[in-house]
């Protein structure tokens, strides 16, 4: 059985199946409702984004994950305070 799994992984790697990464990213200043609609259009085909308890769960390619992290760094900032 082990040799079968080894052969299966070899075939998957050789055939170009995309590699995916999954990461749980805690949000500091924004809510999931604010962040998910911004991130969803950035996902590559086959990627997914969800979340719970102010933690964003992203599954996508490593390169796409780095792009998403850059966008999150720009939008997960403290809200501005408006004084009137």
Label this structure with key terms.
alpha+beta, single chain, 3 helices, 84 residues
Write the layout of secondary structure elements.
Layout: H1 2-14, E1 21-26, H2 32-39, E2 48-52, E3 55-60, H3 62-75
Antiparallel strand pairs: 1-3, 2-3
Description:
With 84 residues, the protein is of the alpha+beta class. It has 3 helices and 3 strands. The termini are far apart. 12% of the residues are buried. The mean pLDDT is 83.
Low-confidence stretches: none
How many strands, which pairing sense, and closed or not: the largest β-sheet? 3 strands, antiparallel
Order of helices and strands: HEHEEH
Give the N-to-C terminal Cα separation. Answer: 70 Å
Rg value? 17 Å
Q: Tell me, what's the shape?
A: elongated
Q: Could you say which structural class the secondary elements and strand pairing correspond to?
A: alpha+beta
Please bin the fraction of helical residues: 40-55%
Strand order of the largest sheet: 1-3-2
Beta-strand share of residues: 15-25%
Mean pLDDT: 83
Number of helices: 3
Number of strands: 3
